[in-house]
User: Fold this.
Amino acid sequence: MKKKMFLAVAAMMATMSVSAQDDTVQPYIPLDQMPHLINIMPAPPAFESPEFANDVVRYAWGRQQREDAERVALAIADAEWENLAKLFLQWKDAFGLEINETATPQIYKLMVTALATTDPMRKETKAFYNRQRPFERFYDTMPSHEEDDLRGEGSYPSGHSLRGWTISLLLAQIAPERADQVFARGWDYCNSRVILGAHWQSDVDASRAAASVGFCALQSNEEFLAQMKMAQQEYKSLTGVNNIHADNAHTQGTASIYHIDGTPATEHSRGVLIADGVKRVK
Assistant:
């Protein structure tokens, strides 16, 4: 009964908080209609449990990464929260485009609205478990100097990691051919939270799964799907990906017959061949 009462109050406060934060961006799906992570995710590892040992090992790994000045600088840049255009710059190389309201208005609108929908999912779970953060438990300092903003706020799940993995899922849906680069960047982005001492590894791992839950919920929303189509078209228009595909199809269509490895075939060739862009067995 106590947990149910807490969840009801937490959900109401989270909804009020979202409205207070930004009245200009309306989420695709109201928070109370999104999946409730508190009902889905297990409790985080207790500090005295064997499972917590991995969190300690990964905390030590994160501290080692701070010896690399370039990696620390990236982790600090990854900590950006308020300025979404600045945050999206962290995916520029992986995605192949700079995402902002002027250069990519359709993609930007999709991303901002999707994050307004999924970001708040973390709040009631954070509040319920109120898990102590690594820098607090080990009396550590953070290279990003976020201590005053984060102290006393639960670490489970990681809001940055939920957001970062959601960004990667969305960008991979816009540009599937860039998925490898996009997810590699997203994975490293989540690692930044461990390096800074903001989160335990188990916080980050849970957030990747939580992002997938929110991403799946978005796929049921017609407004999201319509905006996704416009974002995909904008990406293709700006990158010329359609022209590349068309050129490839044209090349294959006017060619003769080739082996599967692309070398020219003769009339006596046998096996799987490519003729006019179609696989054939001869």
Strands lie at 257-259, 272-275, 278-281. The chain is about 60% helix and 5% strand. The CA atoms of residues 157 and 203 lie 5 Å apart.
